[in-house]
Amino acid sequence: MLSEVLFAGVGALVKHLSTDLTQAQLVFFRNVFAFMFLLPWVFRVGVSGLKTSYPGLHLFRSITGLIAMYCFFQVLANMPLAPAMMALLTAPFLVPIVARIWLKEHISRITGIAILVGFVGVTLVLEPDKTDFNIYIWLALICACLVAVNKCSIRKLSGTEPSARIVFYFSGIASVVSFFPMLFDWTPISTASWLALITMGLFATIGQLFMTKAFQLASPVKIGLLTYSSVIFAAILGYVFWQEPVSAGLILGTVLIIFAANMTIRQRWL
């Protein structure tokens, strides 16, 4: 839940900066500053601490995460914050399916019911009858699919890889890959924007570490459902900074989402 607070903060900063900076710049600096915040850990563990037996899986996790980031930043720039963040809440519905197919993890009956309840909650939050499902909604859904795969790849890596190493490879690979598009899509950056970019990198790094540690401690099915909490933080930020309305559907949907998450956390077997 702490990681979701920080990720909501990253989303708000991206939306704020999108008026002055390009998407390529935002993606690159989000990753490069996150990478820089991890350098003290690198110096502490040395080269031996970076050795991994799963370079291919790290690369797969990094590329899928980077593509999801490009999609999501584009969505944030062109949609209100709360609906943009909430569209990603379809990812937890996909996590159990991916975890079942890829990781062979069991999905209990209670978890299945919780997913259905959560789906109803997200539907109420998004209010599809009032929302124009344009290209950015579909882009957010594609992003959700990539996020579900990404979360399960973290679970697979976390069996042998420490949290900081997983985040290090993601930030490093993403920084290198996103550097070249940024060169062809550059705009001047103000001092205030630099400060916001640094803060975004810090939030992203701490959030990634918290999320990775969470996946080391529990199944992606349970953790995936906990990401529903981001609806609360997105709604608060959207209301405070962009005066996005808090509707009855948002409140009722949030209650159902919290109830669904509570159902899966309290069960004894997964």
TrEMBL record:
Keyword terms: Membrane, Transmembrane, Transmembrane helix
Tagged with keyword Transport: no
Q: Which Pfam families match?
A: EamA
Q: Where in the cell is it found?
A: Membrane
Which portions of this protein are annotated as coiled-coil regions? Answer: none
Q: Which InterPro entries does the record cross-reference, listed alphabetically?
A: EamA_dom, EmrE-like
Q: Where is the EamA domain?
A: 2-126, 135-263
**How does this chain sit within the bilayer?**
Multi-pass membrane protein
The residue ranges crossing the membrane are 27-47, 59-77, 83-103, 110-127, 133-154, 166-186, 192-211, 223-242, 248-265
Full protein name: DMT family transporter
Which species is listed as the source? Fluctibacter corallii
